Structures are given as structure tokens and as C-alpha cells.
Amino acid sequence: MAGHSVITATWKRLSQYFYWPGLLQEVTEYIKHCDLYQKAKSRNTYPAGLLQPLPIPTKIWADISIDFITHLPTSKSYTTILVMVDRFSKGAHFAPLSAHYTAPLVAQAYCDYCGKLHGLPETVVSDRDSIFLSQFWSTFFRQNGTKLRFSSTYHPQTDGQTERVNRCINQYLRIFAFQHPRHWAQLLSWAEYHYNTTFHASAGMTPFEAVFGRPPPCFIPAIIGGPGTAIIPDRQHRERILKRLHINLTKAQAKMKRFADRKQREVVFAEGDSVLLRLHPYRQATLHPQKIKRFRLQYYGPFTILERIGEVAYRLDLPSDCKIHLVFHVSLLKRYYYSTTPTTQTLPTHKSRGRPISHPIAILDLRHSTTENEEQALVQWDGQLPEEATWIKLSQLDPDTVSKLRQPGDNQQYRDALTTPINVIPSDSTADNINKTSLFADAGKEPGHKSQHNNSKTWPDRDDTDSILSHVIQTRTQNTISNNKLFTDMPD
């Protein structure tokens, strides 16, 4: 009913009815180690992991990033755009693809739109799309000396440059093709020209100038009838442009990291640590399948960290049947705190009519219920602790089972486990509401008298049980009245 509230809310709720020294600290530790709270609560802090920018390249079209824009309206049988971006000059090429594209078709599109102009790159950064993870794609590039670099699972920020270009393409097509959405394929070449001739603040120039060493041609002279002059750069001029480009990118990257780190936290885990993993159920169903996505947990686990990859990625020990990559960004991980309090063991998995089936293994006590006028037994069930025993009607048990479970001395270990008193303020109801553990522990105790209950080898008969029960009820009722009077007399 409390809803697993945060620390302050839980402490406020408890402090209305209870007080003991260290209440706030105990509430803090309990919530910190609560398994369900750790998995269900949403994150309300800055993401973990400081920004780790990729190294700045030094050559034009030697290091590229690649991605797809999918689910576009059909235009000339095309529904997808292959985006290829140079990480140094920020230049880009866009290739249209049909809906049912494969790894060989994507590789051919790369050669037709990018490879014929710049050759094969030294490195390719991409996400973990099935095309980029296919054997054909891997063999095609690696046999030519190209290194494939993939982003970590569920962390598209690794390839943030291409994601930003995708947004530019969508914006351009949205402006020029919103009235005729099925004509976007005809505008794709102009979208590429517009992007490559647009000034980039991070580079301090246009991608066209970075690649060709001169400003892009302007259409204004052709419109107004003026002459157009072409500037042919020399080698020194070309080197100065590339040097200026590298300096500008370095400054822009440092500025970007400085601002990004203001809203991110540095979190470091060690090998062997237990962490929770934030998953996207709508994108995977092998690690933790769940039909109803609305009420899914925020985190799953715990899982053990096997290895640290770089500065902000970790390899986890996931189940062998899991079909997702084992390396995750630190922003998807959260340290797991094991509970320091004993947890309740679950009932067996066997069910009847939707309810778990359990078997009695010990009868810990007997009593006579005055409200129901019948005998009751304190039964410990299979798979549960003695402290979790419950009172049931004695008539519900088989007579042979009762005789077997009540053999003298057989249940001494369970009776000893119940002799630890638990301080409970009873309600004004009958003996059924009194904690069975505290009742059993206080049985037969008089003020100043040391109980010999632990050394008893026989069960108390019904008359003794009734007298003990009446004595405990009377004693605890008096204690409750005294405690209430004590709290009433306390000054505000």
C-alpha cells in the first residue's frame, strides 16, 4: 500500500506513528537495498559517464560513419536512405535504397555513391544493425584493411554525428517535400548539395571547402548575369585549409565536452561488481520477455561485470541464450545493492486453480480459538522459514500428518527458532492478531522469571496453552495502555 516511496516520503509516513533512534538511517538503508525499488524506480539523476569523443581524423574521407533513415514513403520504389558521413570534413553522401535491402545491395550502394569518389575508408563507425553485423559486410571491408567500429548496445550517442546528419536530411525533406511526400527521391541530390555547401560551426567552413579547398560555386552570378571565377588552390593553400579545419574541430570538440560533462556524472565500476541493466523491451525479448510494456521494470538483473571496455563501457555476464551484445554504456548501468534483511522465500511452483501448492513440514504450536471455538495449529510450510508459520484449523490437516509432525522432540529446532522475541504493539483485536513469534517467546514468562521453555521436550496441552494465551493478552494490553499514556503525556 505504501507504494515503495522515496526515502523522505517513507520516513515521513513512519514518523507519524513510530520513533526510535536512527529511524531515518534505517529507512535509508532499507530503501537503498530494496530489490524491487532498485529495479522499478525511474532515474532522476544526470546520466552516468562523461563524454568520450572519438579521436579527430587527419585525412579526408579516411574515417566515416554510416547509418540508415528508414520508413520513408515510397518514392520510385525507395523507402530508405543510406547516410555516409566523413568524420573529418563533415561531408556526406546520401544513397536511396529499396525496402528489402540486403548487405550486398548496401555495399554496392556505398561503392556507387561514395566509394567511387573517395575509395575505401580506414575505419567505419556504425550501430549494431544486422546489415553491419553480417558476415558479408564484415568480409567486404576487412579484407581491404578497413576496421569496423560498432556502438555499444542501446547507446546511439556513440554515432552521434550521423544521427545529427539524419536530422538535417529529415528537416530538408520535410520543408521541400511535405506537399508531395512521394517525390523525396528526386530531391535527395539537392539535399546532399545543400548540406555539403552549408557552413559548419564546428569545422569553421563548409564540407565542400574542406574537401576541394575552395568555396562552393554560387548560383547568384548565373542569376544576375555576372561572371563566375573559379579559384584553383595551390598545395600550400590546401594544407592551410586542412590545418585550420583540424584546429577548429579540436576547439569545437573541447567545447562540446565541457558543456556535456556539466549534465553527466562520472561513474566507475570494477570487475566483479553487480549492476542492474536498463533495457528496451520493445527492441529485445530474449533477456527478459514481457508482454505488457507499459508496466515493465526500468532495470533488470543483477548481472556481474566481466570487463571494462575503454572509459565508459562494460562487458556483462548475461545468460547464454541472450541475443544482444554483451557490452553496454555506463549510462545504462546502475550499481546493485543486495538486501541485508532476510527475504521471504517463494512457494513452490506447483499450482492448483492458480494458487501455489505447499506442504506442512512441522506443527510448531497448538491453541484453542475462542472466537471460532475450534483447535488451531501453527504450521510451518515447505519452502518457508519458521518465522513465516501460519495458524490454520486443525481439522484441515490429516490426522496421520498431525500425529507425525507432533512427535516429541522432532520439531525442537523449529521451536527454538521461535524463541527470539519481537517487540510488537498488539491491536485491540483477539489473539489471532498477536504476532505468533512474540507470543511463543513470551509464553510462560513472569516478570523477573527466566523462561525454561527452550529446554522443554514436550508440547503444552490445550489448558496450558489457553492460560498462557490469556496471560500474554492481559500483559500486552496493559503495556499498550502504558505506552499510549506515555506518548499522551509527552509535551508537543
UniProtKB/TrEMBL annotation:
Start and end residues of each stretch annotated as Disordered: 441-464
Pfam family, one: Integrase_H2C2
Keyword Ligase belongs to the record: no
Keywords: Aspartyl protease, DNA integration, DNA recombination, DNA-binding, DNA-directed DNA polymerase, Hydrolase, Magnesium, Metal-binding, Nucleotidyltransferase, Protease, RNA-directed DNA polymerase, Transferase
Residues annotated as domain Integrase catalytic: 51-215
GO biological process, one term: DNA integration
MF GO annotations: aspartic-type endopeptidase activity; DNA binding; DNA-directed DNA polymerase activity; metal ion binding; RNA-directed DNA polymerase activity
Gene3D superfamilies in the record: 1.10.340.70, Ribonuclease H-like superfamily/Ribonuclease H
Keyword Repeat: no
InterPro entries: Chromo-like_dom_sf, Integrase_cat-core, Integrase_H2C2, Retrovirus_Pol_polyprotein, RNaseH-like_sf, RNaseH_sf, SH3_Tf2-1
Name of this chain's protein: Integrase catalytic domain-containing protein
Organism whose genome encodes this protein: Platanthera zijinensis
Classification lineage: Eukaryota, Viridiplantae, Streptophyta, Embryophyta, Tracheophyta
